[in-house]
Fold these 4 entries.
Entry 1:
Amino acid sequence: MPQPESPLNNHSSHIEQMTHLGNRLWQRGWCHGGCSNVCMVTQKDPLQMLTIVEYRDRSQLTEVDFVLVDADGNPIHVEPTAVPPQARLYSVLAEQTGAGCILHTHSVSAHFLSIRLAALGGLLVEGSQVLKALEGVTSHEQPLWLPILENSRDTHALADGVRSTLQSANTPLHGLIIQQNGLLSWGRDAAEAIRHAEVLEFMIECIARQAH
C-alpha cells in the first residue's frame, strides 16, 4: 500500500531557509543542547507554522527534524511528543505581530540578564548604531524596551503572558526575554528576523558585560 504524502513536501523552501537559520544560530553559540528554535508561518488563515523538533542538532537538520503545527501549537502530521512546548508561544507572536519568522535563541548573556534583571521587568537598550538595523528605528538614541517575562511550565499561561505584554506595550517590540528560557525575536521574513536577533543579542551581551 502506498504511503500518504507528507505535508512537508509542500514546504521545501521553508525547510531550506529554516535549515540555514538553524545552522546560523548554532554557529553563533545560541543553540545549546538543541534548545533554540526557528519558526516560519506557512499559512495565515487558518494559521499554520513550521518549527523544529526539540533537542535536534541545529547544525545537521534534515526534513524529519521539522513539524507542522496549527494555531494552538498542536501537531498536524506527527505525534504530539515531537512538538516543542514553546510552539504555542510562537503562534501567539505570529498572531499578535504579523511576523512571518520567529527565532528563539539561548545565549549565555540572555540567560544571565534574565535572572539579574528579572525584578526590573526588562532592560533598556539604547546608544548603539546597530539598533538602526531594527525595523522602524531611525536613531541610535531611540530607547527600546526589552521585556523579561517570568517563565512557567504552563505554556498556556506563558502564552497569555506573551500576548498581554505585546498588547500593553507602548511602542512596538522587536523581542522579549523569557526568564531562564532565552530571547524571542521576530520579523516579517527570515532576513528581518535574523537581523533583529543579531542586534538584540549584541545589545544583551554588551549590557551583560557591563553588569559583571
Entry 2:
Amino acid sequence: NNAGIMTGPDEAMHKSVDGIEATFATNVVGPAALTLSLLETLRASSSPGAPSRVVNIGSRSIMGFSGMGGPAQFDFDNIDGSKSFHGVEAYKNSKLAFAWLTYELARRSKDKSVTVNIVCPGFVPETAGEHAKGFQKFLFQHVLTHVPGAHSAAEASDNLVWAVTDPALADVTGKFFGERKPWDSGSDAQDTAKAKKLWETVCALAKIDDATVAKLGLA
C-alpha cells in the first residue's frame, strides 16, 4: 500500500469524492478498503511457512524530525480537518493512523496466513518535493538530497522490496521497519486503545460493517 499524498503548506484542504479529507482518504481509508477486499484472496494464496504479506508504507515523521516539526498529534475530532488544517500535520497524522491500522489488523489476523507490517522507506527528497514550487522545490531537489539520512528513490524502493521478499520476514507480523531493521514507532503508535478506535473509525468511513468484519474473521 504505497499510495500517499501530502498537501503543500500553502494549499487549502480538499476532500475525496466520498467527502473525506483527502490526505486521510488516500493514506489510510483507501488502503484499508483495498486490503480488506483482498484479504480472502491473500489467505488463499498463502502456504505453510509462506504467508501472504501486506506491506504498508509508513513514515518516521510521526515522531517528528527537522523540517516536519514535532511528533504527530492525532485528534479524532478533527479527522475531517474542520477544526484546523495544515498539510504536513495532516500527513503525519495519517501516517500515525496507518501505523495503528497496521498493528490492529495484525492483532486481528489470528490465523497468521497473512502478515501485516509497516515500513518507512526513508526520507526521499526528490519525490517529497516533486510538486513543490520556487525555493521549496530547489531546497528539496538540490539541498536536502545531500543531508545525512536522505535516500534516492532507488534506495527507498530497495527497502520496500526487502520487506516484501526477504525470507527472514516470512512469519513476522505487526512490526514497524525502517531501512531494513526494526524501528521503535513510539508509545503513541503502540497504544492499543487508540488503534482499536482508529480501526472502528476507518471501517465506518469505508462502509465496512460489523458483519463483514466478522465474516473476515477480524472481529
Entry 3:
Amino acid sequence: RIQTHLEELGFYTYIIKEQPDVVAESVMQKVMRFGLCSRFVVVENSEPSGHLYEFPHIAKFAELTTIVLQRKGEGATWMFEDLYHKLKSIKKFEYDDGDLEQQIDLGICWANEYLDSFGKYQQSNLPWLKPH
C-alpha cells in the first residue's frame, strides 16, 4: 500500500530488498546508495526486519530525511524513540488501516517542509550558498 500510494503521487519507489544485488557491495552499501539518491526515505517500523540495523546508518550517519510509518499500538523496537526527539530530520507517523495513505501524505508534507526550511537555513548561513 505504501509503494502504491507513493507511485500514485508520482514518486519513484525502491523497496531495497527487491533491488538487484551488486557483487562486492554490502547490504549497507546498497541501502546507502539508494538512500543518498533520494529526497527522503520511508521506513515501515511496525514489525522487525533488517531495517533495525540499517536505520541508525541512514537516519544518523547519512542524515537522510526519514519518514517512519508505524501501525498504532505496534512497533518493531523502542530503540529509535529517543531519535525522534533528538534529530530534526526524522519523524514518526502512526497509522491504522483506515488512514495509512493520509499519514503518508502528512509525512511527505513534513519532509518537504523540513527540507525547504533546511535549505533556507543553509542559504542564510553558508556563504557559498547565499543567493547573489
Entry 4:
Amino acid sequence: MTDTTTTDIVCPLWRRLIALLYDLVAVLAIVMTVGLICQLATGGQLITTGTQVHIAWWYQPLQAIVVAAYFVFSWLRGGQTLGMRPWRIRVTTGAGERLSFWQAAARAAVAAVPLLMLLLAPALGVHAALWCALGLWIVWFAVALLDTRRRAVHDRVAGTEIRRMS
C-alpha cells in the first residue's frame, strides 16, 4: 500500500541534516531521562569515581537500545521522527511504502556504525575518536550528494529513502 501523503520529490540533504539536529534535542532528552531513572534505581551508584571513573557495564548498551528504539518505532509508526515532522519529510521504502521492522532496524544499525569509532578512544584519545566518528558520518551522508535519489549509506543498505510530503 503506497502512502499517498508523500510525493516523489526526494528530500535534499540540507533538510535531512536540519531534521537530524532537531532529533538530537529529543535524543538528549531521552538519554537524560534514562540516566536519571538508572541513577535513581542504583541509588546513585551508576557512575562511581575514585582513582578511575567506573560506569555500570549495562548502562551504555541500555542507552543505545533506548535511542535506537526511538528511531525505529518513530519510523514504523508514521515514517517520521520528531525532527522530521516540522520539515515535512518522511522515510519510506523505495516504492513509497511504510518500512518493515527489519528495514527500520537495519537503517538504525547502519546509521550508528560510525559510533564504533569511539572504541578507538583508548588508543587515540577521546577527542580523536570523536573526530573519527564525525568524519565517518560525513562520509555516510556525503554519499547522498552523489546518489540520484539522495540516499545516504544507511538508506541504501535498508532500501529506504527520505521524501518530502505534499
